[in-house]
Amino acid sequence: MLSQYISKTPKSKVLFEENKEFMPYGVSSNYRYFDPYPLYLVRGKGSKVWDIDGNEYTDYNLGFGVLEVGHANERIIEVISDTIKDSSIMGFEYYKTGTLAKIICQRYGIDMVRFSSSGTEATMHSIRLARAFTKRKKIIKFEGHYHGSHDQLLVNVNPLKVGGKVPSSSGIPDEVIQNTIIVDWNDIDSFEKVAKEDIAAVIMEPVAMNMGLIPTDKEFMKSVFELSKDKGFLVIFDETKTGGKFYNGAAGYFGVKPDIIILGKAIAGGLPLSVIGGKREIMELIGPGKVAHGGTFNANTLSVNASIVTLRELLTESAFYQLHRLSDMLEIGYRDIAEDLGVELSVSKWGPSGSIYFSEKVPKNYKEFIRMDFSRWFTYFYVMLSKGVIPMGGFNEQWTVSIKHSEEDILKHIEVAEEAIKKAKDTKTNMS
Ligand code: PMP
């Protein structure tokens, strides 16, 4: 399996050897590295990408969920080519940013927004805002949920052992995370224990998408909102991923109104743009001499125009119908494979995304997730790569389909997956 990957990607290996001289692990994000060396991509078009060895892949990682409009979408190319003729950064405010703000507020049921460039920046600003509004310090986050790479929330994202509070990077002092409280996802009892009057906010991925794809218990969600009202803390939906999965995001899907919503990834058609949005009385705290929010690249002209086109023309309600339909096909395909091969394989799906687990059932939270043996997943992954399918970005990620994927792409995915899972079935696990 691994040998197939290695024999197909000699140029990636050479580039890795060269790049690691100048970049740790030869990459510019830890999440792009996997053993024995990362894949170096050259270009993409629609549902496909090509690596430096000229291999073609159908891509279901899509920039970790960014490119639901597909690679090199014609409308995005057109709009950014036009825009850049008039400058990419204005420094002062760009006149069309308000148009985008209005589109987002109306679509996602938000009163006011500010823009940043990444999910990390947006969640960082959101907890500052929540603390300023409530005049409290403590933030609850869920184990296994990822909110970007800033210190205060980079805790218990992917601990190797469960129990206790563990920073997910070295270099994070205990003092910095002393006001971050960790709770199990989908576990009302564990949430109730800490949901007190000294909490500023709870931040969550409303559907957990950094542990594969773990569905949300609706009763649990209801309790979180009830307790927040009761105890006076804010609910922050980190919709960096989920915001692009349903037309109105997870808030629309669950029919709830969080105090603050973060958007990112898919909403700007591949350009860097994120949103911190929320209720008017909270958002109005942002301003000079009040709550700080800044960023040189915030709402640059390219991202603003790409996002207007993405939301108005590309990720429309009918586009979501198609995305969900293709994702349904994948889900059914994987379930059939599991049944036909008699493999212990569970499948989860939410909108255009889904994931597979080599276990009897989909985990409920991180404790169940990390208990699994991932050796089968890695066999599956390398077979998929060697047969020209990038099924997802990693064992804790999920597939995403784009408006450029075809039924033919999906059928090929299922065919290759059958072979990959057959091989994975024969992989010796630590548990067998
Ligand atoms: N929040 C969530 C839920 C995410 O999945 C991610 C990235 N995968 C982030 C925040 C961070 O976003 P970015 O990489 O744009 O900083």
UniProtKB/TrEMBL annotation:
It comes from the Archaea. It catalyses: (S)-4-amino-5-oxopentanoate = 5-aminolevulinate. CDD domains: OAT_like (cd00610). Pfam families: Aminotran_3. InterPro entries: Aminotrans_3, PyrdxlP-dep_Trfase, PyrdxlP-dep_Trfase_major, PyrdxlP-dep_Trfase_small. Its cofactor is pyridoxal 5'-phosphate. Keywords: Aminotransferase, Isomerase, Pyridoxal phosphate, Transferase. GO terms for molecular function: glutamate-1-semialdehyde 2,1-aminomutase activity; pyridoxal phosphate binding; transaminase activity. Belongs to the class-III pyridoxal-phosphate-dependent aminotransferase family. This is Aspartate aminotransferase family protein. It comes from Stygiolobus caldivivus.
